[in-house]
Amino acid sequence: MVPGHLSLVPSPIDNMSQNINSIRGMEDLFDPKELQKWRWVEKKAQEIFERAGFQEIRTPILEEAALFERSVGDTTEIVEKEMYTLLDRNSKKLAMRPEGTASVVRAFVEHFTSHQINEGRFYYIGPMFRYERPQKGRLRQFHQVGVEVFGVDHPTVDAEVIGLIYQYFLELGVENLTCSINSLGSRECRERYRQTLLEFLRTIAPGLCEDCIKKMDRNPLRVLDCKKEGCIAATANAPKILDSLSDESRNHFLQLQESLKSLNIPFQINPRLVRGLDYYEKTVFEFLSGELGAQNSVAGGGRYNDLVKDLGGPQVPAIGFAVGIERLISILHHEKIPVQTKIRIYLLGLDEDSHQILFKFLKPLRDSDLIAEQDFGPGSLKSKMRRADRWKADYVVICGEEERKKGLVVVRNMKDQSQEEVSLENLPQRFLKI
RNA sequence: GUGGGUGUAGCUCAGUUGGUUAGAGCACCAGGUUGUGGCCCUGGGGGCCGUGGGUUCGAGUCCCAUCAUCCACCCCA
User: 0.80 cut: is pTM over it?
Assistant: First the structure.
């Protein structure tokens, strides 16, 4: 170390013995049962959304930070406080995506609208990143499945989209969800409402909490979202956004309700529902679970008719939503998950020569769509059998000196404990008839 | 960023008013037939008691700091 220089970084030697652990709020997934749920959730999403004419899209995790500043909004919590940003080697400011919509819109503008294709239906599955304090239902790396529909501004499409999530939950067997909807109106309605609300809030400001007073001028709508009793009471008589809607927006909202009813989707109107992302307008919605603790929102979304244009594309209306996979999985208790029932075969040799003989069968067995593993480990037959059992083998193929002399192997059925001798030539076929 | 709870074996946790070599269950390993798993029995390995300071003759136990984790606020999926 250079004398006179303070080293803030521990020397490599100090570091040597220190374990490196996963970053807070980011998890390793390796529990087979948990992963089974993940696959099920992902598979169902593919099925349902592809049946509804959506195509998958995979966008990069890293984007220019400006993308999110311009879409999600640079005064939102997500962008202000929670975004993972970094400078690349050219000092370009990048961000790990905190949500999916912005990237999909960026890609849509880049690859579709540039060729006069102004409609499209996309779905995505992938990790999102937000620098928050982890707690129940909240991680720093979490995963979402989401969909975006570009090209139509029609309430029936809103209902279709909400219906798709509803069906998704239904087919996964998730219960106890409530769907809340609201309308923020078009940009014009929203601006008009902002003014009336602001005027109202000023008159009741003394009754609001500190946070709300701070929020008031920057984003007055969010005051309505405050969960403090005092604020809820103080704003009880606040002008309702639904009263500020233009005729067009109001009709849109009413038609949406009609469509939802005809689809038999239960919903409630929550006039205080305001989403934390700036790009929403008109329809917003959210699915809440009663089993999640404080972070009870499993899915949320809304319409964003001006975002495509804001990001440099033509005026293309759109609507989308995202489902939180971790939250979804945590309320997915009753496993209706179809289990894989392939036969598991454990090849167990007792000496080197037997290993060689069995090894010849390993690939053929796997090629016949069976799950096969060979034991090369140390130990007695007893301990090898223990391993086979722990591995949940259906059959164990045993080969030792005795078998080698006779040119056969012993096949043990682990369930009924029966054993039979099978000649080497017949070994792969032995399992095909099961 | 703010508040509260918790950090002892791979996992779930005991650990008395500070007092010898720190415990249990599960898991793991070995043995109980010289070549046969689960159940049972016996034995075994494995802990700088999160980390760093302090008080004390003596700290897993008390004090301070720090880190991690969980829950809540905030915000969101």
Answer: yes
